[in-house]
Amino acid sequence: MAPPQKGKQGTKGAKQILEENLGTLKFYRNMAMISNALSLAILIFYHSAVNIVFYIFSSIIYIGSYQFMAYMAKPKYTETGQLLDSGVDLNMEGGVAENVKDVIILTAGCQLLSAFISNYFWFIWLLAPARLGWILWKNILAPYFFQPAPENPQVDEKKQKKLERRQKRMANMR
Q: How far is CA 52 from CA 114, 115, 140, 142, in A?
């Protein structure tokens, strides 16, 4: 085991990002497929209109989220086959991919809990718009509303007196 590093975190190479992105995509694809399969198995025996609608909705969320992450992580190669760009790092802290991964985890949790325990667990999905509102407030609205007022630049006393004399002269000339 390597000793913990102090200070700045090292940067990752393009190949390492590509390998980690493939692993991340595989993990979240498997999570979505397993929770969808388990939910479908329960849905076959205990189906209702509500469960079918939410199953379809969760499937759409899985597909959309996975395709979005796959699009973000799509690598670019040169004509000779060399890796030109590894795509966006899906494991970067604070990135958009982190929020998309949270949506997949939330959907899997809602789907499995509602399949095995109670349909009321579908209400957990209401955390997604709440999280979106919080991110919108924290990153866009709050800085806009609570930005500090611009400070008046400190004018030197000599410059201030000179400016006042000039204004008096201009007023006397009129």
A: 12, 11, 37, 39
Q: Is residue 139 part of a domain?
A: no
Helix, strand, coil proportions of the chain in percent (round to 5)?
70, 5, 30
Is 144 within a domain?
no
Domain enclosing residue 51, as ranges: 14-129
Give the residue with greater pLDDT, 9 vs 33: 33
Can you give the pLDDT at residue 1? 45
- Structural domain contains residue 1: no
As a whole number of angstroms, the distance between CA 114 and CA 130 comes to: 20
Entry pTM: 0.68
Residue 2, pLDDT > 50, answer: no
Question: Token match 């959309």: residue?
Answer: 64
Helix (H, G, I), strand (E, B) or coil at 59: helix
Number of structural domains found in the chain: 1
